[in-house]
């Protein structure tokens, strides 16, 4: 039995490009915890995340569509007890009123809080003055809790501290998470905590703990970060949980789970380990047999982390009935009712589907110019809707259209009656305009390459290789200014990027 955690940086992109199918086929997961799904409720029916063979617990951002979000998938034959959204327990139990006809749904008129229902996982702390901030964080879709017979699974996406305000959110989130975990452990429950913590625990988990290579020196020591100290209270030497990866691989170096795609840091393995699976020591010693990082699986700027478990969840036929699932399950969402399918059907969605649609539009467009009587009956609205696809075809379609126009003979004159002269000349005019625009774009590209090649690209001093031209995107006096840097990805040693830097100047005759 395998449990995975993965920050996918957009679940829709993962499905559309086929990475999700590759991931499932290679790993055969039993439980998957996704972070940063960036999927909204209105897209649930399109992607059908509520599949028949998987149960999904999805927490979406309620304040900013397409932001944050976590999702927990588990095989449908695993028995479930309860499920809850958020850490505070003060979110409105909106899903309890979706289908009030079922007896096990809450019958209260007003929508209650999770902590007020029997479907809450429980073990809440008392209300505090900062409960408003914590509820605001919960509305961003940063936590989904599922209780299985032998353990409670926390799937979290910790905020990134880019400012003083977000630092306060992050510290409060980790602090509240620690309190709730301790309460669950004190009640005798096993706890598994996984997700993206946006924090590297120790120096061994960071490629550049002092910020020297990235030219971003820290104002304070690596260990003095308040959020890092609080995080280590959860899984440190005296913490309630264990870092499962370090439990099995205490001395492994260069074990990272996140890289900067803009600098190509994954090629040189210049990253950080900020994705974790934590569990209480008794559970690890009794049930966990292995833990590792799958850095060869792509689709995001993060990679999956998994633990191998003994079969702690027995198969239960009763769990197949939707009525026995917690109300928070996606199979109860009104958006998903009637659209549920198997996971294999979901995995068929890939980027190749878009290519097939483009190729299918070609024959219809060519057939319209061959003056077939079947094409004559196409309405003008349909022709207008295909106009954008017509211009997206390759040059071979334009050449085919022109050749058909030139080889037009009297044998087709009888079929011209179905076309008005206006429609005919409009179609021919469109094809000629398309060819003209294509030739213009090609000539423009040739001239651009000609002048670009006349200006020599400087070579970096560290590797004597051509540099890359970059643009300053950070706000300030140099915004929009171009500069040259080493063409290699950022990293350590000679294989990484050297410190070459040169401002781009059109008037500089040296290059």
TrEMBL record:
Domain of life assignment: Eukaryota
- A Gene Ontology MF term for this entry? phosphoric diester hydrolase activity
> Cross-referenced Pfam families, in alphabetical order?
Exo_endo_phos, Zn_ribbon_GRF
Reported cofactor(s): Mg(2+); Mn(2+)
User: Site (Interaction with DNA substrate): which residue positions?
Assistant: 302
**What does the entry list under GO cellular component?**
nucleus
What does UniProt list as catalytic?
157, 196 (proton donor/acceptor), 302 (proton acceptor)
Site residues by UniProt (Important for catalytic activity): 275
Q: Return the cofactor note field.
A: Probably binds two magnesium or manganese ions per subunit.
Q: Which GO terms describe its biological process?
A: base-excision repair
All copies of domain GRF-type, residue ranges: 460-507
Query: Which residue windows are coiled coil?
Result: none
Keyword vocabulary terms for this entry: DNA damage, DNA repair, Hydrolase, Magnesium, Manganese, Metal-binding, Nucleus, Zinc, Zinc-finger
**UniProt EC number:** 3.1.-.-
Q: Give the protein name, as stated in the record.
A: DNA-(apurinic or apyrimidinic site) endonuclease
Taxonomy, top ranks, is:
Eukaryota, Rhodophyta, Bangiophyceae, Galdieriales, Galdieriaceae
